[in-house]
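Researcher: Structure for this, please.
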Amino acid sequence: MLRALLCLLLLCVAPPVRADELRPGYLDLTEVAPQQWRMTWKGPLRSGLASRATPVVPEGCSVGTPQRTVDDVALKVIWPMRCAQPLGGKEIKINGLDNTIADALVRVAPLDAAVQTGRLTPQQTSFQVLEKASRWDVARAYFVIGVEHILLGFDHLFFVLALVFLLTGWRSILGAVTAFTVAHSITLVGTTLGFLGLPQKPVESVIALSIVFLAVEIVKSRPGELRFSQRAPWLVAFSFGLLHGFGFAGALKEIGLPEGEVPMALLTFNLGVEAGQVFIVALALGILALIRRFWMPAARPITLAMAYFIGSLASYWFIERTLV
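Model: Predicted structure, token format:
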């Protein structure tokens, strides 16, 4: 009865969460001919950027008639822009960003200079274009986005945590997490480059089911009786990792990848995701080790409580994503 009440409470208070709540905006300024630029703004609908945020035309520049398109995920606006002087030293700003909880990536691509990228936040709404910049700016920006995505994307966070709670021994956990990493890297790269593809809505639903599956395995596990997921954890992690990779790719599709810097952005985004995973696994293992050392009788009840919590939320997400 207590477990049923807990599940009911979670269904009442749990917010609707989609797979990969990565919803930053994307502002691209590309010089297409001397003094002729194209300014492209992509504002995701779910984060509120489409209705609340607007890019500011850089000082000394003027824009022509915009072209607007809207799909089911974002507003896209393209302006022809003329700038009499180079953008070095100029400020790039997005008005209204401070009224949202989302970030925005900025990319500036002159004809005769290195591409520059920046990351704007509600606290830092402007970015100053440098006179000279390194291409490693792209790497830094997408690495940070990757780290934030695994830490704030509850689907992937809960899946990795469930692996830690299900398995015993660092070798087993390392093997499963490595298989998960390899699998989602394959589908992330393949989908982003156009070689693979699946409809996003069914993928989101099955990702939620993958978390439910691991939660059930944790609850049903018994000492001395290995479940299938414990006998072949790498196979389970790899299989579900392929699906999670489609989720990562869907998130990247919404913000876009910097033209001409796709390999670097993909690599560093994936490295950021892995850095976030390592942090999660290390933190969870450390907490479990402390519990087992100083409070061993509570280890199993805590594990079960986490399994019911994770499984209940994932079940709610599956229903919400399937029916809505």
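Researcher: Any notable elements?
Model: Residues 2-19+153-323 form one domain. The chain has ten helices and ten strands.
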